[in-house]
Amino acid sequence: MKQILSILSLVLFFSLGSFAQGYQVGDKAADFKLLNVDGKMVSMADYPDAKGFIVIFTCNHCPYSIAYEDRKIALAKKFAPLGYPVIAINPNDSTLVEADSYSNMQIRAKEKGFPYPYLLDADQSVFKRFGATRTPHVYLLNKEAGDLVVRYIGAIDNNYEDANAATEKYVESAVANLMAGKQPDPAFTKAIGCTIKVKK
C-alpha cells in the first residue's frame, strides 16, 4: 500500500511540475536580453512601438526549423510593419549540436538574410521560462496595458512539409484576430519539431 501511495505521489508531483513549467495562454511574459547575430544585445523593450511579438524558438540543424525558415521570413515581412515583429531564439546547447553554435547562427542568418533578430539563449533560461519544448515553438505575445500577454502557443501551421499544403495557418490567423480585437482561435496547438537540446 505504501508503495502504491509513493508511486501516486510521484505521478502527481511530476504532473503538477510539468503543468507549472512555462507560460500558459493568458500569462504575462517577462522581457529578456539576449545576444543577436550582429553582436548586439536585443530585448523586447527595444521595440517601444510594437503591438506584440511573434517569438519563435528555433535553430539551425533541426529539419523542422529548416522547413519553416522561409515561412518565418514571410511572417516577419508581413507582420513586422503591422506592429508584430518576429524574434527568433536559438535555445539549443551547441556543445551537444555544433551546428547550432553562435558562429553557425551568424552564417545561417547571413545566408538566408533573416529580416529579424536571431538570438542565442546561451544559459538556456529563456526557453525554460517560456516553456518551449520544440524547435520551432511559437509564442505570440500581445501588448495589453503595458504588459506582454501570451495569446497563442504552438505551431506555425499544420503542414511542416509543404507550406502550400497547409490548410491552417495558426500564427497568421492568431495575429489577424488580435489586430481585429478578437482572441486567437485556436489559442493553443501542439508544436511539431525537434526536442530542445539541453546540457545535462
Tell me about this structure.
- The chain has 200 residues and is α+β, with helices and mostly antiparallel strands.
- The protein has one domain (22-195): Glutaredoxin (3-Layer(aba) Sandwich).
- The chain has six helices and ten strands, in the order H-E-E-E-E-H-H-E-H-E-H-E-E-E-H-E.
- The protein has helices at 2-20, 63-67, 69-79, 102-112, 125-130, 170-179; strands at 28-29, 33-36, 41-43, 52-57, 86-90, 118-120, 134-135, 137-144, 147-154, 194-195.
- An eight-stranded mixed beta sheet has the order 1-9-8-4-5-6-2-3.
- The longest helix is centred in the N-terminal third of the chain and has 19 residues, at 2-20.
Question: What brief labels describe this structure?
Answer:
disordered N terminus; single chain; eight-stranded mixed β-sheet; alpha+beta; Glutaredoxin; about 30% helix; 6 helices; 10 strands; about 200 residues
Short description:
This protein has 6 helices and 10 strands. The chain is an alpha+beta fold. It has one domain: Glutaredoxin.
**Overall outline:** globular
CATH architecture: 3-Layer(aba) Sandwich
Strand order of the largest sheet: 1-9-8-4-5-6-2-3
Number of strands: 10
Full CATH superfamily name: Glutaredoxin
Alpha plus pi helix count:
6
Number of domains: 1
CATH level 3 topology: Glutaredoxin
